[in-house]
Amino acid sequence: MFLRLTKTVFVLLFVALAVVGCQIVRNTETEPLPPATAATLRVATYNVHYIVLGQATGPWSVGDWERRKGPLDLAFKAINADIIAFQEMESFGGSSGGDVNLTLDWLLENNTGYAAAATGDPAVFPSTQPIFYRRDRLEMRDQGWFFFSPTPDVIYARTYNGSYPAFASWAVFRDRRDGREFRVINVHTDYGSRSNRLRSAELVAARARPWINAGETVFVVGDFNARRGDQTLRLIEETGVTFAPVKGASYHFNRGLNLFGAIDHIGYVGTARLAGDPVVLRQKFAGEWPTDHYPVIADFMH
C-alpha cells in the first residue's frame, strides 16, 4: 500500500512538473518587437521594483541597483516607447514621500529625449508611478493622482483594509503631430488583497468614466496583479475599456520563471486602435534581469 501510494504521489508530482515546465517554455519565448513607426503611438508599462535605501547588499538593495541599473537602461532603450508607465519606481526609505528616486533620475539622465509626467514634489504629488513620454512628439497638458482608499484625494492614504498606500497616477498629453489629446491612467493595485484590488478597480472605473463619457481617448495601464478575465479587469472593462490580449507571463520572480499569465496590462478606449499584437520582452539585458517584471508594449493607431 505504501509503495503504491508513493508511486502515485511521484507520478502526480512528475505530471505537475511537466505541466509547469511546458508553461515555462511556452511563456519564455522572446517575442520580436517591431520597429516603432511615426504612424503609430507606442505605449508600454513596466514595473521596475523599488530600491531599499540603507540596505547595502542583497536583492533590491542599493548595491543591487548598481548591478541592474545598466540593464534597466538598455531595456528602456529597447522598448523605444512614446509613452511608458512605470510602477514601483521608488527608492524606499521606510516611509512614503521620500525625495530620493534613483531610478527616475538615472533613466532621465541617460535618455534626454524623454520627460516624466505624473511627478512632482513628493510632499504634494506621489512620484513613484511616473509616466515617461517622448518630448519631441508629446506635450504634457495635465496630471494628477488618486489613492485606492476611502479618502482617495488624501496623499499617501492607506488602502481600504489599512495596508500600504497604493494609487493611480494620470496625465493628459497632446500629440504634436496632429494635435489630438489622450489620457493615460497608471495603475498599481495591491498584490496581497483581492478585496483591495476589486475596490481599487471600482475607483479606477469611477474616475475614468466621466473622461470616457466626455469622448476622451484613455489608456488604462499598469500592474493590476490580476490576469485577463479576472473581476479586477472586468470592473474597468464595464466603462468601455478593452485590454490588449497579452499572451503568457509578465511577471517572472526575477528568475525568468513564467508560471502564470500576464498581470501587467494595457487597456484603451476612444479613438485608439490596436496595431498588431502586444509584445512582452522576455529577455535579459547585459546578462541580467533588470527587474522581476517584463515590459509589456503595444502600438496603437489613434
Write up what this structure looks like.
The structure is a single chain. The strands form three sheets. Strands 1, 3, 5, 6, 13, 14 and 15 form a seven-stranded mixed beta sheet that branches. The protein has a six-stranded mixed beta sheet with strand order 7-8-9-10-12-11, covered by helices on one side. By secondary structure, it is an alpha+beta fold. The longest helix is centred in the first third of the chain and has 27 residues, at 2-28. Helix 2 packs across helix 3 (102-110) and helix 4 packs parallel to helix 5. The chain is built from five helices and 15 strands. It has one domain (31-301): Endonuclease/exonuclease/phosphatase (Deoxyribonuclease I, Chain A), CATH 3.60.10. The protein has helices spanning 2-28, 62-79, 102-110, 194-213, 231-237, and strands spanning 41-47, 51-52, 83-87, 91-92, 114-117, 131-134, 138-147, 167-175, 181-188, 218-223, 242-243, 264-269, 273-274, 279-280, 296-301. The relative contact order is 0.17. 27% of the residues lie in helices and 25% in strands.
